[in-house]
Structure to design on (367 residues):
């Protein structure tokens, strides 16, 4: 910056180096230009950086550490031989002025007016930091020989305690001195890891292709291996074995269902069938079944049909058969007939079947 300003300077024709000495004296200006406009009052404008976080008293806004201002620097006193400077600056968010000054005794800055400090200080002794030596202690070290000897002994004991920690720090720092070796080792690990990841991706892709899976597979763990080792897999039965087993079940199945059919689910029908079975008398062996045994009452025909033996036809018998095959009221089981009664056909029963058949439901509870 100074070199740039040192070249291409214009010297007026009446400039005399012996008389003026410099261009600043010739122009009656200060080398610092506007920064020295209040130099007669002992004030120099500098670039000041906020040393810690504060709150402005004017606008109550937070001003972070490191914010820079054009501050007026002024000497206000001394701490022994160290000067104390005060800085005055204007807040960039309002018209309030903030004043701060140095504190050489505590190596810190103190707010004089215009702001409030955000308290974030800590004890240097608690953080194992190096404490500044007080002035009284300095004078005692210079004048008292015994105190200086004791102070030196204390420092030696502290050094002996700190040697292991310092050696560990030095070893850790020495391990990072060879940058080329560290870089080579790191790149080698990266290549090995990249190769392992590529092999794992190939295995996963092959398994997904084989099993026709579109879901992502998670990495295998030790628990998965243990669980898979405990499982036992059996081969599935072939198609022929399944068919053979199915045929065996069909052959061993009973032809007659053990439970009544869907038509007998009605409670009233079931009760009627039970009563008919109980009230029916056992049939003697060798005897033919008559209409009275079946609970059928004979009734004369009202139409006065001819004798079926004379006409050579049996209309009532054919009607009887059609009525038995397709009963108007449903199946025999629905009308109250017992399904296990068998009828015999023959010449002895022809006269019985000539007349109309009427079922007797006098003992039943059907509607």
């Amino acid at each position: 910056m100074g070199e740039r300003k040192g070249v291409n300077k214009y010297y007026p024709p009446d400039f005399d180096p012996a008389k003026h000495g410099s261009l600043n004296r010739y122009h009656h200006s200060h080398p610092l230009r506007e920064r020295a406009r209040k130099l007669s009052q002992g004030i120099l404008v500098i670039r000041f950086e906020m040393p810690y976080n504060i709150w402005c008293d004017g606008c109550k806004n937070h001003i972070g550490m490191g914010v820079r201002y054009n501050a007026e620097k002024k000497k206000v006193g001394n701490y022994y031989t160290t000067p104390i400077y005060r800085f005055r600056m204007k807040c960039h968010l309002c018209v309030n002025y903030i004043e701060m000054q140095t504190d050489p005794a505590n190596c810190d800055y103190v707010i004089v007016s215009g702001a409030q400090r955000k308290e974030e200080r800590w004890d240097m002794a608690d953080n194992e930091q190096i404490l500044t030596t007080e002035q009284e202690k300095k004078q005692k070290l210079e004048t008292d020989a015994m105190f200086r000897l004791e102070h030196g002994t204390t420092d030696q004991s502290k050094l002996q305690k700190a040697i292991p920690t310092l050696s560990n720090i030095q070893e850790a720092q020495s391990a990072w001195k060879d940058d080329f070796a560290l870089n080579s080792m790191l790149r080698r690990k990266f290549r090995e890891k990249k190769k392992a990841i590529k092999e794992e991706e190939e295995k996963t892709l092959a398994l997904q292709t084989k099993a026709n899976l579109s879901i992502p597979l998670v990495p295998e763990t030790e628990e998965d291996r243990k669980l898979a080792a405990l499982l036992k897999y059996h081969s599935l039965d072939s198609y022929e074995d399944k068919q053979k087993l199915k045929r065996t079940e069909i052959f061993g199945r009973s032809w007659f269902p053990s439970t009544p059919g869907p038509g007998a689910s009605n409670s009233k029908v079931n009760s009627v069938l039970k009563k008919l079975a109980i009230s029916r008398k056992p049939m003697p062996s060798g005897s033919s079944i008559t209409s009275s045994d079946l609970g059928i009452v004979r009734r004369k025909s009202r139409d006065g049909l001819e004798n079926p033996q004379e006409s050579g036809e049996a209309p009532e018998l054919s009607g009887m058969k059609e009525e038995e095959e397709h009963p108007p009221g449903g199946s025999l089981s629905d009308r109250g007939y017992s399904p296990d009664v068998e009828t015999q056909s023959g010449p002895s029963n022809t006269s019985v079947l000539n007349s109309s058949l009427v079922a007797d439901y006098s003992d039943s509870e059907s509607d």
In short: Confidence is low (pLDDT under 50) at residues 304-360. Strands lie at 43-49, 54-56, 62-63, 68-79, 82-90, 97-103, 108-113, 115-117, 296-299, 356-359. The radius of gyration is 61 Å. Residues 20-117 form one domain.
